[in-house]
């Protein structure tokens, strides 16, 4: 399945619009990743734990969107947008959402 942020796919023609499709993931960041991130906040550097968590959440959200698009009979999703939020009373949850238009292309 083709997933793209553009509204067109080169050398493809949209023959049918199936509708808006979403993918959502909410994941918790554990205290060990928080501890490592806090140390990096003090001393500088990248937080590999948070980066890996973000990568996994983004990948899972896209996979969920792709699965939902396929269930609608689509073979592509165009105009994909991603959004990131932190949730929870201590901002310990990461929410990644994506949306796009499920279509059939020839």
TrEMBL record:
SUPFAM superfamilies: YbjQ-like (SSF117782). NCBIfam families: PRK01119.1 (NF002224). Belongs to the UPF0145 family. This is UPF0145 protein JCM16776_1578.
């Amino acid at each position: 399945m083709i997933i793209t942020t553009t509204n067109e796919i080169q050398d493809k023609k949209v023959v049918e619009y199936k509708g808006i499709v979403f993918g959502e993931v909410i994941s918790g960041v554990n205290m060990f990743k928080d501890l490592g991130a806090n140390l990096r906040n003090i001393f500088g550097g990248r937080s590999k734990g948070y980066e890996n968590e973000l990568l996994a959440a983004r990948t899972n959200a896209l996979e969920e969107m792709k699965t939902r698009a396929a269930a609608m009979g689509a073979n592509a999703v165009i105009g994909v947008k991603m959004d990131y939020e932190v949730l929870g009373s201590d901002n310990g949850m990461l929410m990644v959402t994506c949306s796009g238009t499920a279509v059939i292309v020839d």
